[in-house]
Write a structure and sequence with these properties.
Elements lengths: L1 E2 L2 E8 L4 E9 L4 H11 L4 E7 L3 H4 L18 H18 L4 E10 L1 H10 L7 E5 L8 H7 L8 E7 L13 H13 L3 E7 L7 H13 L8
Length: about 230
C-alpha cells in the first residue's frame, strides 16, 4: 500500500487487542525479513509498519552535507519526511488497524537510525526510538544533540553499533563509535538508554540488528536486558 508517495508494508504479531506500533524506515521489501527476525527473537505482540525510502541521502539527512562516499551529497530533507510521517503516514497506518495502540516507536538502520534520533528532537510522535548502526558520525550532530531538547514523550532509546564500524579510512565515519557512545551517555542522564555492541562491520546482519532494537523497545519491565 502507498501513502504520501511512500510504499508501506504492515505486519501484525499476536492476538491481543492492545499492541505497540513500531515504524521503521528502510529499504524496499525488507520489512518482511525484519518482522521474521522479530518473531524468531520472541518479541512481544506488536505491529510493524515498514516505510520504503527511495533516496536515503535526501529524505533521511537532517541538514545538507557534502558526500562522504561516492559523489552524492546529503540534501538535508529529513524535516520533509518527518512532516509526511506526522501529517499523513502515521494517521494512515493507525487507520489500517483495529487494535488499540499502547505505544509508538521509531526504528531505523544507518541513515534511518540517524533520522530516528533526529526525529526524537523534532516531534512528539514517539515513545522511544532505536538508532541501529546509526550514522551518528554525521557532521555537527553531536553539537546539535548538546544544544537541543529531546521530546518529553521519549522514554527509551536503543543504540547499537558493530565493533568494526569505526575501522574505516574515512576520517569522519571513523568517529562513529566515539560519537555514538558520547550521545548515548549524554541522553542516558535523562532517558533510559542502552548501547549494544554487535560483531562485525556496518553491513553484517542489518535485519537482525534492527530486530534486536525492536525487541528491546518492546520489552516489559520484568524482561531481562538485551
Amino acid at each position: 500500500m502507498r501513502c504520501a508517495d511512500r510504499e508501506i508494508e504492515i505486519y501484525s504479531q499476536g492476538d491481543g487487542e492492545v499492541k505497540s506500533l513500531v515504524i521503521c524506515n528502510g529499504m524496499k521489501d525488507e520489512g518482511k525479513a525484519i518482522f521474521a527476525r522479530c518473531q524468531k527473537l520472541g518479541c512481544h505482540d506488536f505491529i510493524l509498519a515498514h516505510i520504503a525510502i527511495e533516496d536515503w541521502n535526501r529524505d533521511l539527512s537532517p541538514w545538507p552535507a557534502p558526500p562522504v562516499f561516492g559523489k552524492q551529497s546529503f540534501a538535508g530533507k529529513a524535516d520533509d519526511h518527518l512532516k509526511k510521517l506526522k501529517e499523513d503516514i502515521v494517521p494512515f497506518i493507525l487507520e489500517q488497524t483495529d487494535e488499540k495502540i499502547s505505544s509508538v516507536y521509531l526504528a531505523g538502520y544507518s541513515l534511518a537510525g540517524l533520522f530516528a534520533l533526529y526525529s526524537a528532537f523534532n516531534c512528539d510522535l514517539f515513545d522511544g526510538i532505536a538508532s541501529v548502526s546509526g550514522s551518528l558520525w554525521y557532521p555537527d550532530l553531536d553539537e546539535y544533540i548538546r544544544t537541543h531538547k529531546i521530546s518529553d514523550r521519549i522514554k527509551k532509546i536503543y543504540f547499537s553499533l558493530g565493533d568494526k564500524e569505526n575501522k574505516t579510512k574515512n576520517p569522519l565515519m571513523a568517529t562513529v563509535a566515539d560519537k555514538t557512545e558520547m550521545i548515548s551517555q549524554l541522553l542516558s542522564e535523562r532517558i533510559e538508554t542502552i548501547y549494544e555492541i554487535n560483531e562485525g562491520d556496518h553491513f553484517k546482519d542489518p535485519d537482525l540488528r534492527v530486530a534486536k532494537g525492536i525487541r528491546w523497545l518492546l520489552r516489559n519491565p520484568a524482561d531481562p536486558d538485551v
